[in-house]
Amino acid sequence: MSKPSSGPLELFDHTSTRATARVHELRAQIERHNRLYYEHAAPEISDYEFDGLLRELVSLEKAHPELASKDSPTRRVGGKPLEEFAPATHIVPMQSLDNTYSPEELREFVTRVHKLAEDRSIHFTVEPKVDGVAISLLYEDGRLVRAATRGDGVTGDDVTQNVLTISNIPHKLQGDPPEQIEIRGEVYLPKTIFARLNAERDEEGLPPFANPRNAAAGSIKQLDPAITASRKLAAVFYGTGIWTGDQPATGREMFAKLQKWGLPISEKILEGSDEGSVNAAVQEMGELRHEFAYETDGAVVKLDSLALRREFGSTAKAPRWAIAYKYEPERAETKLLDITIQVGRTGTLTPVAELQPVFVSGSTVSRATLHNEEEIQRKDIRIGDTVLIEKAGEVIPAVVEAKKELRNGSERVFVMPECCPSCGAAVSKLGVAWKCTNPSCGAQMRRRIEHFASKQAMDIEGLGEALVAQLVESRLLNGISDIYTLDRESLLNLDRMGEKSASNLLAAIEESRSRPLWRLLNGLGIPHVGVTSARDLANRFHTLDALASATEEKLLTIHSIGEIMATAINAWFQSPENRTLMESLRSVGLNFGESDSPTAPTDQRLIGSTWVLTGTLSISREEAAEAIRRLGGKVTGSVSKKTTHLLAGDEAGSKLDKARELGVPVLDEAAFREICG
What is the CB neighbour count within 10 angstroms for residue 199? Predict the structure, then answer.
């Protein structure tokens, strides 16, 4: 793909006929892509391609001022508010930023700001450009009274109920905040959650999210706040709108205020004062960005002085004192050797690209999901194509496009199989997904057992993918309950299975019988039920039998359970096949909740504390987290001002650095054991 131009892409004759036609065409395309991006969270082109269209329109309007229009997308921000949500008018309008992919244009921006400053000393901050959904929080007397999306910059959607489910957004500001303040930032989906969410959507035959930004947009605009809560969104803040009373002098002082009030800010904010230092900071941010929990697509350069920001003002769309430098997508070109089929635990057939290994975004990629048949047809991807690869959300390898101009005629059109490649049973199409119709399919069984034994479920150490495949193939496992009938003699007959490995596996299986109910619920693979909802269900119903007999109305009394989840849970327990599975698990002695300790901690020595775990411990992190929760503490995934303790094992990484930077007490495992008794 060619780089977006910084000037007119074509010279037009004096009649402007062709210019007029192209301007109308570009405006129509941009309006359409804006609707897809902002209102439906379903873009058809990349940000890079969209920016190219917008820059071409800007160039044409500059070259032909008579074609300029106040309704042009070059003069407006984002998309219109959605009808499903109440409108929310921003007290101070929310603008977007001018952006560039060009180091030359970045230098021109710095020079231009220096000229506006007229020899006054100026300073810049360089922040990561979080690829999320712009949000504005209105606090009055320290309390969150409204949360709104950017919308068209003047009016957005009131998404307060959904934002209240985001754990790192405070409902009440700490300290002594202003009487009224609008705080601006981005709601994002952490990259790890994005990877899990798309894997679940693949399994359910749903179209994948294109990137974390679109997943976040789809989550924040759910009509059911319970679905928003289940997505584990987070936020980071970088600016303000209305601010009554005394204001800070600089952006850096503003960040200190936000932190003092309990609001999360970017973990890295770099600085510069001239062309050279600003450019160096932007390049450094480009190297650091892969370490962040959120996806970043650029760096934002801002004048630090708030007084000068007000003096320099803005255009109709963007401030004159800031610019976003966008990094070009990290892509690699390679050969698509084949397309194979992976059968999931619910029977969904997922096409997988088998690639000639290629290095991209920090690792070597040899496989990438193609999601479904329609995705392959839409992109016209063929076996033997030269393809472009990138990592969606810097996590999931994805085939972006086929290089059709390089085809030589030997490429083959992919056709979905008529039978399951694992068991040979017929397949049927449900929506966009093809599914194996045989519930006893070996591939489905392997995936279900792998999920059941995983660390986030029953945590049966040693029962991994390779061993599960052996056990299913040798017919020692024909279902989940068969795990508990394995014996030493049968295991020793397997390849590469020695006495010690067999003993360790049997011990792990035995230990799993008494796992708490939430782990069993997660392991059963009930649609839409993950770790968080499994915990909530266990805390509410206490036993598997009580949950199995719960009505949808009772399920809906749990805050994190919405209508879709309630229906899915109820349907799962009504299935005769699943009732048989429950009885088989009961017969082998699994804990159905009766052996769980009370949910309310009797010893509350850690009440009010917030812990983060990092590094390698002698026990699993989940065991450590359980110990903290039993004593009334809370466990989170990232270090912030709210963190009261960091438990650091061997090879602790960036979380340890962050804790030291914030002055959070750091404990080793010995100190942790002493605290927990």
Answer: 15
The DSSP code for 71 is T
Instruction: Give the integer Cα–Cα distance in Å for 676 and 672.
Output: 6
> What is the reported pLDDT for 48?
67
* Alpha carbon distance 23, 3 (integer Å): 20
Query: H or E element: which one contains 214?
Result: helix 212-220
- Cβ pair 204, 344 in contact under 8 A: no
Buried-state track 263-289, b at ≥16 Cβ within 10 A, e below 16:
bbbbbbbbebeebebbbebbeebbebb
List C-alpha distances in Å: 634 to 542, 558, 637.
20, 20, 10
Among 3, 80, 115, 129, the active-site one is 129
17-75 homologous superfamily: Helix hairpin bin (1.10.287.610)
Angle subtended at Cα 46 by Cα 282 and Cα 25, rounded to the nearest 5 degrees: 115
Q: In the chain, which stretches have pLDDT less than 70?
A: 1-16, 34-48, 70-71, 74-84, 202-207, 210, 223-227, 229-230, 362, 392-395, 560, 597-603, 620, 622, 677
For 110, phi then psi, to 5°, come to: -60, -45
Per the CB < 8 A criterion, the answer to whether 519 and 535 are in contact is no
Q: Name the H helices within 388-514.
A: 442-453, 465-473, 488-492, 499-512
Alpha carbon distance 538, 534 (integer Å): 6
Per CATH, the homologous superfamily of domain 442-587 is 5' to 3' exonuclease, C-terminal subdomain (1.10.150.20)
Please identify, in words, the CATH class of the domain defined by 87-326. Answer: alpha beta
Confirm whether 17-75 and 87-326 share one CATH topology.
no
pTM, two decimals, is 0.55
Predicted local confidence at residue 33, as pLDDT: 75
pLDDT value, residue 639 = 83
Locate the domains of the chain by residue range: 17-75, 87-326, 332-436, 442-587, 610-676
Domain boundaries 610-676, corresponding CATH code: 3.40.50.10190
pLDDT at 75: 63
Q: What is the pLDDT of residues 473-496, one digit of tens each?
A: 898 998 999 999 999 999 998 888
Residue 403 tokens, joined: 């290089």
Report, in angstroms and rounded to the nearest whole number, the Rg of the chain calculated over CA atoms: 27
Q: What is the pLDDT of residue 381?
A: 95
Q: First CA to last CA across the chain, in angstroms?
A: 60
3-state secondary structure 613-667: EECECCCCHHHHHHHHHHCCCEEECCCCCCCCEEEECECCCHHHHHHHHHCCCEE
pLDDT of residue 41: 53
Task: Copy the structure tokens of residue 266.
Answer: 């970017």
Q: Tell me the angle at which helices 191-204 and 212-220 cross, rounded to the nearest 10 degrees.
A: 80
The question of whether 435 is a catalytic residue gets the answer no
CB atoms within 10 A of CB 155: 18
Tell me which amino acid residue 411 is. E
Contact call for residues 83 and 255 (beta carbons, < 8 A) = no
Tens of pLDDT, residues 566-589? 999 999 999 998 999 999 999 999
CA–CA dist 282, 294 (Å, integer): 17
Rounded CA-CA distance 354/121 in Å is 56
For the stretch 433-439, contacts whose Cβ atoms lie closer than 8 Å and that sit 24 or more positions apart, written own/partner, are: 433/204, 433/205, 433/206, 433/348, 433/349, 433/372, 434/348, 434/349, 434/372, 434/373, 435/205, 435/346, 435/347, 435/348, 435/349, 436/343, 436/347, 436/349, 437/347, 438/347, 439/347, 439/577
pLDDT at 413: 95
Q: Which CATH number fits domain 332-436: 3.40.1010.20, 2.40.50.140, 2.40.170.20, 2.40.30.10?
A: 2.40.50.140
d(CA 434, CA 426): 10
